[in-house]
Specification:
Elements: E1 2-3, H1 12-16, H2 32-35, E2 40-42, E3 45-58, E4 72-77, E5 80-85, E6 98-111, E7 116-129, E8 135-146, E9 168-180, E10 186-199, E11 209-223, E12 226-239, E13 253-265, E14 270-283, E15 289-303, E16 306-318, E17 324-338, E18 342-356, H3 360-363, E19 371-386, E20 389-401, E21 405-407, E22 413-415, E23 418-430
Antiparallel strand pairs: 1-7, 2-3, 3-4, 3-5, 3-23, 4-6, 5-6, 6-7, 7-8, 8-9, 9-10, 10-11, 11-12, 12-13, 13-14, 14-15, 15-16, 16-17, 17-18, 18-19, 19-20, 20-23, 21-22
């Protein structure tokens, strides 16, 4: 849904006074208890409304290669509205047999340089039925319409994407059944999830895909704060509209994974996660994949309100160029609460991405190998003026280092490297 707002520049000052809400993906705070207030009680339910505004700057709104970037000032307005059963202190320690949470959110973004705007929307709902300590059943759905360019280095590409053409609709629905011992020391669950990934613009329609995922997991808490866990999945993934115009043929696949590990605490201040496993993908073009997966993280609570973590992940997933992308990621994050009114966060990630291509890339004259280095740095903060109003700020840097060049029909080429800096300042009001 693309639109133009010729009068918007003259109303920015008025909008900035309206308050603010979390960004579409709760960019400022991962702790929902601080991202929301107590809410408005409506009998056995709680209402959590919010609305907000940010003004920002993006140095590369289309994630174009160096020397072709287009910068813009941006206005973002982000309302949200959630309804749930009673939570927190209102429950007074009572565990409800039936609980649910549902809501909608939006992010209106207006770009001042191309003078165009678009709206991202989201909806999610979760229902949990737990009649006792042993059995629980969960139903959920998630929908998100995103409008930002694809920052994942494994994302789709088009040589003609020179406008706001990145609208993408993602839907996920599923269920999970869990059984546990009365004390909760041993737990096990099975689940099913269906995902649909739809691209609204014709430039990216050949990337439409869907998947069915069957999952299982179990954990055993053999120490007060340490547990042994296992999880595994079987996924059937299909592209909906294979296209000879795509960079590579779209290939359906069946993927399996299994991972076992430990999650716990060495001391009151030091915690860790250590896990490893095996994953494999079986593709219709016989360009199969198998390798190990891993997750390592150490966490230090430097003080009661400050946490620092350092970790490494090896992952494997879907790619829109080639069959798959293997990602080795080194990451660190810092979270701090100062004086109960200032929340600070910082994270940095360095990801090494290896792509698995088929022979068609070489047939088009392109390089059949691709290796990217993806750097992400983010700093964010919030100052809580009063219980329901806060000032927020965020700074981010994103760069993809690669020598890879996309080769399209008719000899068109497009370098895959890009870099972007963004900065945001805003207010948010919430209950």
């Amino acid at each position: 849904m693309r639109f133009r707002i010729p009068w918007l520049e003259s109303t920015v000052a008025l909008v900035l006074l309206a308050g603010a809400a979390p960004a579409t993906a709760q960019q400022w705070l991962s702790d929902r208890a601080r991202a929301e207030g107590r809410g408005i009680r409506l009998g056995d339910f709680e209402l959590h409304p919010g609305i907000g505004t940010e003004i920002g700057y993006d140095s590369n709104i289309f994630l174009a290669e160096p020397d072709t970037e287009q910068a813009s000032a941006i206005l973002r307005v982000s309302p949200h509205f959630y309804l749930s059963t009673l939570s927190g202190e209102r429950l007074q320690g009572v565990r409800p047999r039936l609980s649910f949470r549902t809501g909608v959110k939006a992010a209106l973004k207006y770009y001042f340089a191309p003078k165009e705007g678009d709206i991202g929307v989201g909806q999610d709902a979760r229902l949990v039925w737990a009649p006792g300590d042993v059995f629980s059943l969960e139903l959920f759905d998630e929908f998100n319409r995103s409008i930002d360019p694809f920052s994942d280095p494994a994302g789709p590409v088009s040589s003609e994407a020179d406008q706001l053409a990145f609208a993408r609709d993602q839907l996920g629905v599923g269920t999970r059944l869990q059984l546990s011992t009365p004390g909760g020391l041993v737990k096990g669950g099975v689940g099913y999830r269906y995902d649909l990934d739809y691209f609204e613009d014709d430039l990216f329609r050949s990337n439409d895909n869907h998947s069915h995922t069957i999952s299982a997991d179990t954990s055993w808490e053999f120490l007060p704060k340490t547990a042994l866990f296992w999880n595994g999945s079987l996924q059937f993934h299909s592209f909906d509209e294979p296209s000879s115009e795509a960079l590579t043929d779209r290939t359906d696949s069946t993927r399996v994974s299994s991972k076992i590990g430990l999650n716990g605490a060495l001391t009151q201040r030091v915690g860790f996660t250590l896990a490893g496993g095996y994953t494999a993908g079986f593709y219709d073009n016989d360009n199969d994949y198998e390798n190990v997966i891993a997750q390592v993280e150490a966490r230090w609570r430097l003080r009661e309100t400050m946490l620092w973590a350092l970790g490494y992940d090896r992952e494997y997933g879907t790619a829109f160029q080639g069959n798959f992308a293997r990602m080795d990621r080194v990451k660190t994050r810092l979270q701090a609460l100062l004086g109960r009114v200032v929340v600070l966060g910082a994270k940095a990630e360095l990801t090494f991405v290896d792509f698995g291509f088929d022979d068609r890339v070489a047939d088009l004259g392109g390089d059949p190998t691709r290796n990217d280095i993806h750097l992400l740095v983010n700093l964010n903060g919030e100052y809580r003026i009063i219980d329901w109003l806060a000032i927020t700020a965020e700074f981010g840097y994103l760069e993809n280092f690669t020598d890879f060049v996309y080769t399209f029909d008719m000899g068109m080429t497009d370098p895959a490297e890009y870099r972007r800096f963004e900065a945001w300042l805003g207010l948010r009001a919430f209950l």
